[in-house]
Structure formats: C-alpha cells, structure tokens
Amino acid sequence: MHKFYKSLFDASVYLQQPAQNAGVDEIIEVGKLYYGDIKDIYRTLIKFDITPISASIAANEISGTWTAYLNLTTAVGDEIPIEYTIYANAVSQSWSMGTGTKFDNITSDGVSWKYRDGTNLWQSSSIGGSAIFTPGTTGSANAEGGTWYTASEASQTFNYELDDIRMDVTDIVTMWTSGSISNDGFIVHHSLANEANTQDYGALKFYSKETGTIFQPKLEIVWDDSTFQTGSLSPITGSVNSDTFENSKIVITNLRNSYLTNTKTRIRIKGRDKYPAKTFGSVFQYDQSKFLPTSSFYQIEDYIANTVLIPFGDYSKISCDSVSNYFDLDTQDWPVDRVYSLKLKIVLDGVTYLVTDKYTFEVVDN
Question: How does pLDDT run across 27-84, given as a tens digit for each residue?
C-alpha cells in the first residue's frame, strides 16, 4: 500500500536574503552558489500533518513494518555537480510559512534565514556557529538558517543524475509519531561541511505546495498490506506465447469511471478460462474465478503526465480471498480532476506477463 500526504507548509530560506520570506513561492530550493566572492546558501523547510499517520498506526490500518519517504519533484537544476548528497533533519523549533515570494511579493512576515516567524530569531546552542539543535538541549545563542535535531538524519545521494528526491525519512517520522520530539517539519539542505567549503553546488529547484502543477511535496507511507487466502478457487494457468495468457483472461470487474478523493475502494481482479469447456449445469462458466499467483502486482500512472504514482513492487502486491484477487485503492491526497491508468504485472513460472488494457479512472472532488 502507498498512502500519500500533502504538505501543510513549506518555504525556502536564503543566506543573502536573511530577513526575507518566500513562503508562497511556487518553487522551493536547496543549494549553495558563489557570486564572485559572495556565497549564498539555500535551505528548505517543509511540514506535514502527522496526526492522520499516528491515527492509522493506532488503528492498525498502517500495520507491520512501514517506511516513510519524503518526495520532492525537481522543476530545474542549475549548475549541479556530478555527485552530491542532500540531507533532511527534523526542525527543532516552530516556524510560520509567511506570505512572501523570492522576487515579487517581498515580505518578512514568516520564516527566513534570520527569523523563524518574522519576529522571533532562531535560537540554538552555539556549536561552531552552526544552527544545530541536539535532542533534549536548549540554548540562547542566536542561530541562523534554521535549527534542527541531529538524531535520525536522513539523506539521499545522487551520482551523474539530476533527479527527484525520494528520501527514506522513516526514523524522523517514527520520532514524531512516538512523541519523542515535536513535529516542526523537515529542513532539507546540503551538509554543513559542504556549505562551508569553497565548492559551488548549484541550486536544486523543486515544486512547492503553491505550485499549479500536480507535483506538490508529498510524504509517502508504504507497507505490505497484502493477504492471500484462495479458499476453493483454482489457480490460473498461462503460456509464454505472447504478453498475455493464451488460454486465460484477466479482467477487472468493478472499476468505475471516477472515484472521490480521500476514499478507499476494493478493486476486484478476476482470472478465468478464455475458452471454458462446455458443460451442462446451472453455473455460467465464463463467470468462474481463478486466482493469480502471489507474484502479481498493480501499477497506477497519471495518464496525461505519464508519471508513475504507485509502481510495481513489494508495496503494490495483489491480494486474494475466497471471491477473487483484489487490491485496495486509497485516494488519500491524490491530485484531483486527473485521469489515472491501471496496469497489472503477473509473474508465472518465471515468465512476466503485463496486462496493459486501457483501464482508466478519474479522481474527483465530488
């Protein structure tokens, strides 16, 4: 299962614009640049509502071993090095997003390099001039650029690529859901050592909460929710003569044209004989259901943008009960008024079959 949560707030802070807020800018940035002898550093703060995640864990809806990913979609990258690492930490003080932008609507009413809310300075214990908070400590020295916990730091390394961020932040989210630290969001940045050296790391620009696209920052929780109880169903059989089963047919029986956002629906998948033997009886042979192997998966893509929302993998396994195969479609925080396509992958006897019929549906507000 993949469950998504939109960000509540986000904003970038800039060393060379120390009191300027950029809370409603359509872009958030991470970087370090030199303008002649002048160095600029960009960091980004993002906050998500953790309450529904904690509630789902308590209700055992999110069960077993789960993983949390921070997802940021790249808009553009300027002068990015061949190899680099981006870090995320839990912010250690509250902050407000504000209503400014980087270039046009210049304000100082929210978070900035110098202030956490337009009025109150960032406060930190003084550690070599850095803005670091360690868990359980307090300080009175003024800090700049944000403060964060050093525990459970997350990171993602890129090599010869400019790519979206999909960073494992499970340890940080666990600290929030357990109540060991307060949820004041993430701060995303280069390492302090790299920010201090003389190398130019360019600027990574990501879509923000305010973007007019579908690529808002998301917190993604994944876990294996599959179960497999076949009851009296018989297994489906196949042949390797093509990308489909020679003697079997795979159909999705209850896919609707549209689904409301923030709802959960069970999608039924049936395997049956393509040419059932003719017999006399009261049961319609074409309606007989056979189960797919445990190595069966689903994938959901944005039909227009041609981007994968939920990929084939361990967290998109197809389940089975005594009725048929199925998976649960959860549209929590999916972009609305979008058309999505559904594909299936079935691995049988070492052969991979793809079911790519034009199964599409729309997610709507009402």
Answer: 999 999 988 889 999 999 999 999 999 999 999 999 889 999 999 999 987 778 888 9
183 shares a domain with 72: yes
Q: Looking at this protein, which amino acid is placed at residue 164? A: D
Question: Which residue range forms the structural domain that includes residue 189?
Answer: 2-223
Residues 6+ apart with CB under 8 A from 104: none
Locus of tokens 């795979």: 250
The pLDDT tens digits of the residues spanning 212-244 come to 899 999 999 999 999 999 999 988 875 444 445
Question: Has residue 229 been placed in a domain?
Answer: no
Q: Answer yes or no: is 319 within a domain.
A: yes
Q: Which amino acid is at 14?
A: Y
Based on the domain organization, do 131 and 248 belong to the same domain? no
Could you tell me which of 183, 144, 165 has the C-alpha nearest to residue 43?
A: 144
Nearest to 329 by CA among 286, 293, 362: 362
Residues 6+ apart with CB under 8 A from 55: none
* Residues in Cβ contact with 16 at an 8 Å cutoff, skipping those fewer than 6 apart: 38, 40
When pLDDT is cut at 50, 70 and 90, the band that residue 162 belongs to is low
Q: How many domains does the chain have?
A: 2
My answer on whether 165 and 304 are in the same domain is no
Residues 157, 205 share a domain:
yes
* Residues 226 and 318: beta-carbon distance below 8 Å: yes
